[in-house]
Design goal:
With 261 residues, this protein is of the alpha/beta class. Helix content is 36%, strand content 24%. The structure holds adenosine-5'-triphosphate. Pfam families: ABC_tran, BCA_ABC_TP_C.
Length: 261
């Protein structure tokens, strides 16, 4: 078993009277993919935000690489190797794709932006080379000079992932990366996520409503209901768990559309 990269201990988050995350305990080993599922409002995004540091927990502990990061700033966590993408695209529409990707270096490189503005040519070249390699890695080689808006929506999602890779993460947090993608794009995205795990040894925590994608890539699936972990296990165990199907009350066809494995 790989050693744990991310550990959540008795994690809680309250928003006034709303107990959004309750006593969550999860361990994510290195180079594995954890999929988070649960009905709307179950606490998935809140949990991801606490891992990235944009929200502080009301109680509990987060450990990354054996270090306590519970209250560390998002910037510090980026520099430690935790990068994320967002539900809504956050690309800069008037910058070429290569620059959009290179900007991701800003997460770990304090001078990232300045380098891109022409200071320190050798460093600028290195950043550009790395950005080009990351564009290649997500299948967007050849699109360096185009603007994000000239790419399909699916490719814009990949562009966001390429930008996150510039932070040289060991943990990548993906919030609904398949939202708005067609079937082919979703399948390509799933292949990309698996390649990042297998070729770069990346650890991934993924929120995804597209069950085909989530079940295809996750090593472990954790089911959140009303802020608490109902159960966690391998995708096949989760799909056959009557408690999980019941938790999606009114959505009892939740696993019906899964493509045959
Ligand atoms: N900033 C906030 N202030 C107050 N309540 C919040 C805040 N953020 C989230 N909540 C509440 O916390 C609960 C969990 O929300 P969260 O967005 O984490 O769920 P989710 O599982 O990601 O839902 P979805 O699948 O719809 O995105 C909900 O009841 C939500 O209304």
């Amino acid at each position: 078993m790989n050693s744990p990269l991310l550990e959540l201990h008795a994690l809680n988050k309250r928003f006034g009277g709303v107990h959004a995350v309750r006593d969550v305990a999860l361990t994510v080993p290195e180079a594995t993919i954890l999929g988070l599922i649960g009905p709307n409002g179950a606490g998935k995004t809140t949990l991801l935000n606490m891992i990235s540091g944009t929200l502080l927990p009301s109680g509990g502990e987060i450990r990354f690489n054996q270090r306590r990061v519970t209250t560390a700033s998002p910037e510090k966590r980026c520099r430690m190797g935790i990068m994320r993408t967002f539900q809504n695209l956050s690309l800069l529409s008037d910058l070429p794709n290569l620059d959009n990707v290179a900007l991701g270096a800003n997460a770990w490189h304090r001078n990232g932006l300045r380098d891109l503005c022409g200071f320190g040519r050798a460093r600028e070249q290195r950043l550009r080379d790395e950005a080009r390699a990351n564009l290649e890695a997500v299948g967007l080689g050849g699109h360096e000079a185009a603007l994000p808006g000239e790419l399909s929506y699916g490719n814009q999602r990949k562009l966001e992932i390429a930008r996150a890779l510039m932070g040289r993460p060991s943990l990548l947090l993906l919030d609904e990366p398949a939202a708005g993608l067609n079937n082919r794009e979703s399948q390509e995205l799933a292949e990309l996520i698996l390649a990042l795990r297998d070729e770069r040894q990346l650890t991934v925590v993924l929120i995804e409503h597209d069950m085909d994608v989530l079940m295809a890539v996750s090593d472990t699936v954790a089911v959140l209901v009303e802020g608490a972990v109902l159960t966690s296990g391998a995708p096949r165990e989760i799909q056959g768990d009557a408690r999980v199907i019941e938790a999606y009350l009114g959505q009892d066809d939740i696993f019906d559309d899964l493509a045959d494995a």
